[in-house]
Each structure stands twice: as C-alpha cells, then as structure tokens.
Amino acid sequence: KAQQKLEAADANWKKFQTRSDRLTLPNFDERLRKLEDIRCECEQAQTLSGDIYAAETYKVASEEHSITIKLFYQYLYEENTFYNHVSKYLSSRMPEIEQKLENDELIPSFGYDLAKHCLKRNDTLIAYPIEICIRLLENSLNEQGLFRIAPSQGKQKKLVAELNLHAIDRGRTLYDLNYDPHVPASTLKQYLRELPDCLLTNALLSQWNDVISI
C-alpha cells in the first residue's frame, strides 16, 4: 500500500510539474511544493514500511529454528499418539476381525486350506469344488481324453469363479451349465493343484515315502 501511495503521489507531482499552464496558474509553486511534500511523506512511509517488513522478516527467520523444532516435534508427537491409539484399537479388534473373516462362508475355495474348508460344511465333509466337479462328471466317466484334454480357458475360469462363490447347486448338470466334461475335470485338477498343502499332506510325507519303499 505504501508503494502504491508513493507511485500515485509521484505521478501527481510529475503531472502537475509539466502542466502547460504552469506559468499562468495561480500559486503554482506553492501547490507544487505541497505535492512534493506529499510525495516525500509517501516516500518516507514507504521506506518505513520496508524497514518494518524487513525487521519482521528477519525476526521470523531468526526464530525459524525454534519454531520449526516446536511445531515439528508437536506434529510428530501428535502423529505418534494417533497411530499408537489406532494400533492399540486394531490389536484389540484383530482377533474378532480374524474370526469373522475366517467364518465367512464366501471365502474362495481355491487356494484355501482343505481341512478348514471341509469343517465349514454342515452336511458333508467333502470339499465343495470336489463334490460339484464329481457330480458334474457322474455321467461322463467314459468321455474320451477325460482329465487329459484341456477345455476352453474361458469356461474353466467361469466355473472356478462359480465354485468360489458356491453358486452351483448339487442338482445342476453339465447341460444346465453349458459345460463339456473336460471343464469340471480340468477344474478339479486345478483345485487340487492349488491346495496350500498337498492332498496327501506334508505332515505324512515321510510315511508315504516309507510306503513307496516297501
């Protein structure tokens, strides 16, 4: 603002000084001195404002270190306190959350622990993907190349998705689902391959090796 006032006063002073009628204008010199005085006052005010601004700037700069330490430390302290509270809360709720997730009926069957999966089934201890695939293959055991010929990848992915969602009822047939026998056969192989523990279990591996050596 001080700079703007100085520029305005300077412009008025210069404009009045160069008037074409300055020689005939009454009290020209006196009025010119007044404009010059105003210009000088504005210049002094501008200088004073600059000094005040510089002083405040230097003051803030000199206090920057202490301000930074105080605010930054306070910020870190608040952040640490907040995340500690979050951590404690989550730690107290994790067992409950884990239990709810573990009991979720829509946990994907593929890649999931076989024993845990079977324990969740109320009416049978057979894994859902195994049961459905076997039922779908019930009348197709004489199909040529069964478990050897690869099916359409798109159809196999679709069947895997349906099995993960438990979306196929026991009474459905290959005809109902528009699948050929190679789709459930290959899907069954995929399910067994993706088990976290092998079908014969790692725990019994040494005993199976003993049987082989007999």
Question: What can you tell me about this protein's structure?
Answer:
With 214 residues, this protein is an all-alpha fold. The chain folds into 2 domains: 2-101, no CATH class; 114-213, Phosphatidylinositol 3-kinase, Chain A, CATH 1.10.555.10. It has 8 helices and no strands. Helix 4 packs antiparallel against helix 7 (182-193). The longest helix has 75 residues, at 28-102. The N and C termini lie far apart (102 Å). The mean pLDDT is 86.
Question: How are the secondary structure elements laid out?
Answer:
Blueprint (H helix, E strand, L loop, with lengths): L1 H16 L10 H75 L11 H6 L8 H9 L16 H12 L9 H4 L4 H12 L11 H9 L1
Q: Main beta sheet: strand number and arrangement?
A: none
Oligomer: single chain
How much beta, percentage-wise? under 5%
Compute the number of strand runs: 0
Helical fraction equals 55-70%
H/E element string?
A: HHHHHHHH
Briefly note the structural class of the backbone: mainly alpha
Query: How many distinct domains?
Result: 2
